[in-house]
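Objective 1.3, modelling of assemblies. Example input:
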Amino acid sequence: MTTIVWFRRDLRLADHSPLRMACERGGPVLPLFIWDPTRTPWATGAASRVWLHHSLHALAQSLEALGSRVLLRIGPPEAVLAALAEETRATALVFNRRLEPAERELEARIARRLGSRLDIETGGDAVLIDPAALHTAERQPYRVFTPFWRRLREVCRPPSPASPPRRLVAPATWPAGATLADLGLLPRLGWDRGITDSWQIGERAAAQRLDAFVADGAADYAVQRDFPGVDGVSRLSPHLHFGEVSPRQVWHAVAAHAAAQGQMTVPETHVAWLRQLVWREFAQHLLAHFPATTDAPLREDFAHFPWVEDPDGLARWQRGETGFPIVDAGMRELWHTGWMHNRVRMIVASFLTKDLGVHWLAGARWFWDTLVDADLANNTLGWQWTAGCGADAAPYFRVFNPILQSTRFDPEGSYLRRWLPALARLPAADIHAPWQAPPLTLAAAGVRLGVDYPAPMLDHGAARTAALARLKRAQP
DNA sequence: TGAAATGTTGGGGCG
DNA sequence: ACGCCCCAACATTTC
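Predicted structure (tokens):
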């Protein structure tokens, strides 16, 4: 009668459909997490592994508080599940579906291999609304965000989140499993301090962050969200990626906040933030409909685009040594914390794909390895959007000016100073483009260009012209 | 969720 | 007083 609950990117107990299904079936519940080190492509990146380690630790503690555990196993999921079903004489398997191409193929293999032996039931907690349930009047998938958003607001009525189970029936005997350390998720060299210092990981921390932001931060989100030097965004993305909180819970937290203030609808102040949650939804739907876009451009006219081969440029971008402060600050924030403000993500992505002309996949792979919120759907959408080859993509001529963006969105230079201490003593007027600062100002601030901080690696005006020429040629 | 080039307007300095 | 020019501010077009 045992039901296996296979945890994937849904590392929480509240509002967890498979867990609820398992409880309703009665009988023992066997929570399971599988780590597959052989997994390719888009194997979990290094920063994400750090997060995963701590999130699994938190999940294990929560389950222990319910008199249960999480069983850890290592290997290809279909083999692990088959062996475990055999060992435990389990009768059912429940899990949440995922929308990434490799995960959907995996689910299909599991259904073929185990469907006759196990009662398999799945949940769709990864999204607010199933991709098949939201389409244009011509029954096509949406490729443009705004109509997607409008339609979703009309039809999407996600059910109220479920409470976590109060207790779980444990199996009579626990099968042998791996320890968390056996998974080898933490790096040998201790570079993960920046991540663990920057984040509280796990379901409880996610709930606290959500509650705090809905109560205090969301009202100012529309105006604050573009300023990376201001604490104006929720930073919920890694929690959402690992399913420490579900999109449904976010949706309802906003609605509940409105109701508590006597409003029937979502307050206008919070709409801008929900809109971002729906960008995540849009990305998931796009990936479900266009699975090849993780590695190939959605727009066919980009199939043979002349990307520039520039390993040195790529390396300088990765290390935050381009000489453009806003770009370097972003790349250093990423390296240190595993996260980057979204405005700055757009700026650095534009710099890589337009100024340097480097293939968007190189950027996508770097983000994949270094972001704690690395999410295949979001990452694919974001990079293709910036490069101009994706859904609802930026028009080819949209090239961010890193100096202008910096002056506009970090006018005092507070973000730059935080991540580029070498420039901290420069006045606001000179910090965005230090190579244009008067020599006396540089000297007074203790900045020797090329020594304390790099000289700019290129001329943005010339790079922009070259990018426009490349891009214009690629247009249909 | 862009930026630069180009066009237009109107206030103010100045001869 | 008047016309001229400059240029900031804003609008429009173009890439």
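The longest helix of chain A spans residues 268-289.
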